[in-house]
Amino acid sequence: MADRKKETAVVVSQEQIATGIFSMWLRTEAATTAKPGQFISMYTNDGTKLLPRPISICEIDKANGQLRVVYRVTGENTGTEQFSKLKAGDTVPVIGPLGNGFPLEKAEGKKAFLMGGGIGVPPILELAKQLDCEKQIVVGYRDEHTFLRDQFEENGAVYISTEDGSVGTKGNVMNAIAENHLTADIIYACGPTPMLRAIKNYAEENGIECYISLEERMACGIGACLACVCKTKEKDHHTNVNNKRICKEGPVFLSTEVEI
Amino acid sequence: MNMSVNIAGVEWKNPVTVASGTFGSGAEFDEFVDLNKLGAVTTKGVANVPWTGNPTPRVAETYGGMMNAIGLQNPGIDLFCKRDIPFLKKYDTKIIVNVCGHAPEEYFAVVERLANEPIDMMEINISCPNVNAGFLAFGQDPKQVEKLTAEIKKLAKQPVIMKLTPNVTDITEIAKAAEAGGADAVSLINTLTGMKIDVNRRTFAVANKTAGVSGPAIHPIAVRMVYQVANAVNIPIIGMGGIASAEDAIEMILAGASAVAVGTANFHNPAVTMEIVDGIESYMKKFGFNSVSEMVGLVK
Lengths: 260, 300
Known about the structure:
- The complex is a heterodimer of chains A (260) and B (300).
- By secondary structure, chain A is α/β, with parallel strands linked by helices.
- Chain A has two domains: 7-98, Beta Barrel (Elongation Factor Tu (Ef-tu), domain 3), CATH 2.40.30.10; 104-259, Rossmann fold (3-Layer(aba) Sandwich), CATH 3.40.50.80.
- In chain A, 15% of the residues lie in helices and 35% in strands.
- Chain A has helices spanning 79-84, 122-130, 149-153, 173-179, 193-205, and strands spanning 7-18, 21-27, 39-42, 53-56, 59-61, 66-72, 91-98, 111-117, 134-141, 157-162, 169-170, 186-190, 209-213, 229-232, 243-245, 252-254, 258-259.
- In chain A, the strands form three sheets. A seven-stranded antiparallel β-sheet of chain A has the order 4-3-7-1-2-6-5. In chain A, strands 11-10-9-8-12-13-16 form a seven-stranded mixed β-sheet, sandwiched between helices. A three-stranded antiparallel β-sheet of chain A has the order 15-14-17, with no helix packed on it.
- In chain A, strand 1 and strand 2 (21-27) form a beta hairpin.
- With 300 residues, chain B is an alpha/beta fold.
- Chain B has a single domain (5-54, 67-193, 211-294), classed as Aldolase class I (TIM Barrel, Alpha-Beta Barrel), CATH 3.20.20.70.
- Chain B has an eight-stranded parallel β-sheet.
- Chain B starts with a strand and ends in a 13-residue tail after the last helix.
- The interface between A and B is large, with 37 and 43 residues.
C-alpha cells in the first residue's frame, strides 16, 4: 500500500516546564488520526543518531493539526537534548501515530483511575481529556515540579504523590490511593516498570480491569525488528511465541496479558 | 537501460533487497514501501520451530550505527509458510527466505520444508553472533562451512546463498569454503560483534552483553570485505553492511557485489530502499551504464 511515510513536522512552540522536562507542540499529519496512549517516532537531525526516539503523545489538537509531546532530556549529547534545543519554525522528522492507544470505550459508566508516574505522566493528559466517565487522576512526581497539574485539574479529581513529600502524598501513586481511600473499577496507567508492576498486582488482587502502557528500547517502531518485546501469558498470534511487540500490539496492554 | 540482475539464475528486476531481520517478513513495511519496487525481499531468519529470542534490552544506538541481539526470535517455519510466503506472493518481487538453526539438523528441516514452497532463493545464516548455542564458531570454520553448504545443497530445491560473518581473520577463506561446498551465492557482511556499556547504570547496554554492530559506521569494512571476496570466488555476491544511500549501494557494486541489501537504514527511513533503487537508476543514466552488470567489480 505504501501510504505512510516519515514526514517533516514543524515545531510550533517549545518550553521547559520542569527541570529537564520539555513541552513541544508540533504541526504534523500525525495529529489527524492520533489517539490517547499512542506515540510518535521522533528522529534527530544528526546523522550519527539513526534510531527514532519513541515519544508519547501528551495532547492532540486535531483542529489545528498539532500534537503536543512532553519529554525528559535523558542526558548530555542525547537525541532528546537535541530536541530540547529546537525552536518554533524548526523541523523534526517524525513517523506516527504509532501503537494502539488506551481503549477509551472500556470506561463507559465506570469509575476510573488515570495513573501516571514520572515521564509516564504526559500521555495521561489527553486520556483525561477524552475519557468520558468518573475520573480520578493520580499522578506521581519526584518533587514540587508537578508539571501539567493545572490541566489535570480541569479534567477530573487530581491526587498527587511526590517522592520527597513536597506536594500531596509522600511516596508513590499507590500511597496516594491508600491515603485518600480511593477505589476504582477500571485503571489506565503509564509510568516506570516498578510502578506498573505495583498497579498490575493491585488490580489483579482487587479484580479490577487494568490497562498499562509499557516502554522498551526500540529500533524500527513499526513492528519489524522485534527489539521491543514484552513477555505475555499466552502465545501471541503474530510472533507465535510468548512475546508481544510493544510498538505494535502495545504500548497499552491489558495488565493480565503481560508479565512485567 | 536495464536495472535487472541475475543472481544464480534468478532474475531480479533491480539489484536491491533488504538485510534479513530489518524488514520482518515484508508485511511490516508494506505501509511504507511498495514491495513491487524491490528486486527481492529477504525475510527474517526462520527456524524449524518458534524461537523466543533474547531478554531485553535487545538494541542500543551507537555512533553512526546500532547494535542488536534480538536472538533470532521467529514464529517457526510452519506459520511462516502458512502466513508470510502467501503474503509475499501477492507482490512482483523475488522471495529470499533466511534460514537459521542451532544445529545442522535444524537447518535441514527448514530447507526440506521450503523445497515445495514458491520461494526463489534461500539464504543460510551461519553467522548470527547472538545465539549462544549457535554457529559463530561454525561460520568461522571453513571446513564446517563447506560441509554444511554441501549438505544443504543436497536438500535444497532453490539456489542457496550462504551469509558470511565478518568476525573472522580472513573472510575469503570462508567464502571459498562456501563456494567449494556448492553455494550458488554468498552474502556479506553480517554484523560485527560489539559491546556497549552504560556508564551511568554501570551495566551492559544490551542484555545479551555482546551484540551485532551495524549501520553506516561499518560500511567501509563491508566494502573492503566484498572487494576481497569478489577477488577470491566466482559466485555472485550480495553486498550489505551500512548501506544507507544509493551511493553506498553503488560503492558496494563497484567493489564486486552483484546485488545489495539494505539493513539498518530501514529503521532510520522506512522508504529508503525505494530511494536507493531510484538513485541507482539516476547514477546509471548519468554515467551511461546500460546494465548493472557493467558496474559490478569495475573498480579493481
